[in-house]
Amino acid sequence: MDLKEVWVFEGWRGSFEDNCTWEVGNGRVIRLWEDKWMGNTNLKVKFPRLFSICVDMESFLWQAGEMKEHMG
Is the residue at 6 inside a domain? Predict the structure, then answer.
């Protein structure tokens, strides 16, 4: 039995994925367009026109630009 099955078996609310969060880190394992790293929808679905003109549809998050930590 995997975690998703336990979630359903126990009757917990929502889906397993909806109750998990991504830790982006350096962005080397997160696929920019395919993974749901910003909410419950991937960017490919959320921004279909932008995705349609994208040069590299299989890029990872780290390849999308420079990330800087927010200085509070």
Answer: no
